[in-house]
Amino acid sequence: MFSGIISATGRVKRIRRDRQGLRLIVATPKGWRVKVGQSIAVNGVCSTVIGTRPDLQFQYMPETLKRTNLSTLIAGSVVNLEQPLALGDQISGNFVHGLVDTVGTIASVARAGNSHVLTITVKAKKLLNLVAAKTPVTVEGISLTVVDVNKNFFTHAPVPPAAGRMRGSAPQNHVSRETTAVRPWSFTTHVIPYTWQHTNLNEKRIGDGVNLEFDLVAKYLQRFFEHRST
Fold first, then answer.
1. Is the previous residue joined to 161 through a cis bond, with omega within 30 degrees of 0?
2. Confidence of residue 19 (pLDDT cuts 50, 70, 90)
3. Would you say 72 and 180 are in contact if contact means Cβ atoms under 8 Å apart?
4. Could you report the per-residue pLDDT of 122-164, keeping only the tens digit for each?
5. Three-state SS for 191?
6. 3-state secondary structure (DSSP) of residue 55
7. Which distant-in-sequence residues (6+ apart) come within 8 Å of 16 by Cβ?
């Protein structure tokens, strides 16, 4: 169990890939005392420490790689790290389980006063139904607040003339410059300067994937009503 308050960031030193999965080696943050077998959230993914000498070592199976952005990491990437809560710890963020639901995509980064505004798209409509304004969402292991939700799945937008035809084929006269284009669902969240400076969000660019974990109660309620309607 975590709180979504990032303890430190670490830089990826090495990655070893094979058919069985991935082994990740991350520089140990200064002052950390970690034991083999301990859980640490890496970009919001609950990860088991399999080695500590000379650096933190983690191992991931194909299922985890399929549902997270860990497979996109390279040597030099910066990852968010959080140690698990202990009995008696102050909970400054929200309950985070480290069980990533999906990978969202950063669609835009804007400024609003001293904050950065991230717009994150989610491909699955079902998942965005778990999001509501002024509710928590975990992005890359960071506990943030949803500011707004865009549910305009179909929008009218200009489409280049090449749309609707294969490369090398003749132009299609029936394709209009104004047509209905499918846009992923999205939500926005604001990030204060401290969080921006002390996490890997300042390393992110438009088009990058981010791990998302939604509220556990919302997920249980969605499942309850799905079964109730069948």
1. no
2. confident
3. no
4. 987 777 777 888 889 999 999 999 999 886 543 334 444 444 4
5. strand
6. coil
7. 22, 23, 25
What whole-number distance in Å separates Cα of residue 58 and Cα of residue 22? 8
Q: Which residues contact 1 (CB under 8 A, 6 or more apart)?
A: 84, 85, 95, 96, 97
Instruction: Report phi then psi at 71, rounded to 5.
Output: -70, -15
Q: What is the pTM of this model?
A: 0.81
Which DSSP symbol is given to 2?
B
Q: How far from 3 is each of 16, 44, 46, 93, CA to CA, in Å?
A: 29, 10, 12, 5
Residue type present at position 16: R
Structural tokens at position 28: 């140990």
**8 Å CB contact between 100 and 127:** no
Q: Where are the domains of the chain?
A: 8-82, 102-153+184-228
Pick the CATH number of 102-153+184-228 from 1.10.10.10, 3.90.950.20, 2.40.30.20, 2.60.40.1470: 2.40.30.20
What is the distance between the alpha carbons of residues 3 and 118, in angstroms, rounded to a whole number?
21
Same fold flag, 8-82 and 102-153+184-228: yes
CATH number of 8-82: 2.40.30.20
CA distance 77 to 184: 27
